[in-house]
Amino acid sequence: MITHELIERIEGEAVLDFQTDKSGRVQEAAIRFLHFRGIEAILEGRNALDSLVIAPRVCGICGHSHLIAAVRMLESLYENAGYPVTLTPKAHALREITLSCELIQNHIKWLYLVMLHESGKLLGEEPPVALKALYVTSQVNQLCALFSGQWPHSSYALPGGVTCDPTHIEVMQALKILSEVERFIEDEVLGCGTELFESHMKNDTLGTLKGDFGTLLRNFERLELLDSGKSHGRFLVLGNERIAMAFDVRSNAQPDLVSEDASQTFENGGKTYAKNALYNGEFYEGGPLARALVQERAGISDLYRIHGDSAVTRLCARVEEMVLLCAQVRQLLTSLDLSQRSFIPPASIETISGSGIGIVEAPRGSLIHKARIEKGRIMEYSIITPTQWNLGNGPSDNPGTAQKAMIGVESIAKASLIFRTFDVCSVCTTH
Amino acid sequence: MPSNPAKLKVIWLQGITCNGNTHSFLNDPALGTLLETIEFIHHPLLPCQKTLKDLVKKVPKSDVLIFEGAYSAPFERAGVEMRTLLPALAHKAKHIISMGSCASFGGIFKENDPEHISGIVFDKENGSGPLKAMQEKVITLSGCPAHPKWLSFVIDMISAGREILVDEFRRPKELYAYLVHNGCLRNEYFEWKVDSERFGTKEGCLFYAQGCQGPYTHGSCNKILWNDVSSKTRSGTPCVGCTEPAFPKRDLFTTKTYMSIPSEMPLGIPKRSYLALAGAAKSFHIKRLEERLIDDHA
Ligand code: SF4
Ligand code: SF4
């Protein structure tokens, strides 16, 4: 039987076409995205610096990642044109801090607005608006805005650094907010200190966690989904360390091996606006799980050895990343040297021609911006978003990452929940 | 004890959007209090009574319809085209809020198909959008995105039954009579024509070289701060003019000049007066404004 399921309460909407057997078990699942906005075309012909204003508008929840990808793309363009751009450690650290804030708020929203809510609904227990989570995400975004001026949609990073010139007062405010966020994660999300959380991962005893994450895992357990959702076991990180991992073999990942495939789109008679992103011709998973595994972070690697890339490991990776990012932001804030310059002016953009690539680890995985400019004007612009990796829609003999994870799940409703473990974003996927 | 007034019933619908207004709205630290006065019949992310599927099946009445994103007639939500869905919801709504610059004027996404994409009442500055006949009940909250406090202000005014004074684009004057330039910490540098020679400093005004559009942009960004703490110009970023129908302009990080005078005058300032004033101001050298504010950061 074929069923079309509209997926809401994601960023935008998606349609899943399920093929099920007599018992309702999922045999095949196709993913369709029906909206398209044409950001790449909007950028073409403009001044290259305008990308710092337009590109964040790809996505309201991860626009800052798009800003950083765009600015790194421009810096690589300068470099390739023979005008290397220097960033002070301060400018670099500020970008890392604000970028991390975006990831943290994203993960908290995903946990409360999407996962706890949808898993509860399936169990017939609809939780109320998670005001405490929204309050804490507004604080995380405030921390970001102390430096970036606003969230969402700031444009405070430019080739050569950042526009802000913070003082100790901002740093102090930021540290206070961070303490509150850390407290929220320990008291509300985990229900224990971060060290105990580590040992729960190691000992595979996460089910006993008292916090809201424990509730989520128990919801999954009651739905018998903890060990569902296995995909290809291929992982990719391009933003920082550039590592690909397939069947536990790690290799240095090369951006040259990335391709986009339009075979499933309307363009070619398909049913979606989303192009697939492939590495070395194959679907790879990106995002927190991929990042934890390629960095060989202890807790998640332990879980992966026992449960593979199933729901429990994938859910936990996003939560573990919140903890890790808070620690990193703290470290960056406390070691900021405010006497360094925020911005070192590069050559005028009008003198620059060539191509560049900027890659960022965004909340959902590796985000790539590529462009070719001539004398400071954008000739071509191409964006590959993280969700294209995870939510790509392959033919039935070669399913994409999320597609594969849904196959074999007992019902459509449960498969839709597994789909959401990937942190679905339709606006990014189709940009 | 006075009985609690009934909660306003609100529908939040999205056209062609990045979801920026949705996430901006979630940043309101007073969201909990706001939710005591409104209830969402539908919202794209928050728990609500009706899914999109329910919404299109039987179009409900509402007190407030919030529309986010640009309008395009054939664009679909839950399989129903906007040309059908938006007017149907709008007719049954007492008030309509166009949330963000896409919904207000077409915004960024209009750039992809300028002929067919517009705001709900205005297409750039022309009042030719699909809801122009009902414009009396529309409040424009332009901005990319709109500030969450701007929305709660409008909702509070509606629930208190107060009249909202609006400008020619139906933007509340209380929010948009200011310019972004008002309250900017760099105003003194503007007055004395001291430009910020480069990005990344606290000193200088971003108007003369870096493209700041604060002097021609209506918005209270430097009064009602972003995320309660900052604004673009406070963090050294030039204002990009995102509340105006002309957004997004081009060459956003440079100021067009004619014989080293900005080619566009600050709003309402005649060119001759500006030139006279600028000449005089420039002839002063004010040491305080030429130095760094905090020395040990040299
Ligand atoms: S007005 Fe700006 S923030 Fe709002 S939907 Fe459009 S692009 Fe996004
Ligand atoms: S930076 Fe912009 S908003 Fe601030 S004073 Fe200068 S022109 Fe006005």
UniProtKB/TrEMBL annotation, chain A:
SUPFAM superfamilies: HydB/Nqo4-like. Keywords: Iron, Magnesium, Metal-binding, Nickel, Oxidoreductase. Its cofactor is Ni(2+); Fe cation. Fe cation binds at C428. It is found in: Cell envelope. Mg(2+) binds at E40, C62, I383, H431. It comes from the Bacteria. GO terms for cellular component: cell envelope. Pfam families: NiFeSe_Hases. Ni(2+) binds at C59, C425. One of its GO terms (molecular function) is ferredoxin hydrogenase activity. InterPro entries: Ni-dep_hyd_lsu, Ni-dep_hyd_lsu_Ni_BS, NiFe-Hase_large, NiFe/NiFeSe_hydrgnase_LSU. Belongs to the [NiFe]/[NiFeSe] hydrogenase large subunit family. This is Nickel-dependent hydrogenase large subunit. It comes from Sulfuricurvum kujiense (strain ATCC BAA-921 / DSM 16994 / JCM 11577 / YK-1).
UniProtKB/TrEMBL annotation, chain B:
Residues 18-155 form the NADH:ubiquinone oxidoreductase-like 20kDa subunit domain. GO terms for biological process: anaerobic respiration. GO terms for cellular component: [Ni-Fe] hydrogenase complex; cell envelope; ferredoxin hydrogenase complex; membrane. Its main location: other. The keyword Nucleotidyltransferase does not apply. [4Fe-4S] cluster 1 binds at C18, C102, C144. It is found in: Cell envelope. [3Fe-4S] cluster binds at C221, C239, C242. GO terms for molecular function: 3 iron, 4 sulfur cluster binding; 4 iron, 4 sulfur cluster binding; electron transfer activity; ferredoxin hydrogenase activity; metal ion binding. Residues 176-250 form the Cytochrome-c3 hydrogenase C-terminal domain. [4Fe-4S] cluster 2 binds at H181, C184, C205, C212. Keywords: 3Fe-4S, 4Fe-4S, Iron, Iron-sulfur, Metal-binding, Oxidoreductase, Signal, Ubiquinone. Belongs to the [NiFe]/[NiFeSe] hydrogenase small subunit family. Heterodimer of a large and a small subunit. This is NADH ubiquinone oxidoreductase 20 kDa subunit. The lineage of its organism: Bacteria, Pseudomonadati, Campylobacterota, Epsilonproteobacteria, Campylobacterales.
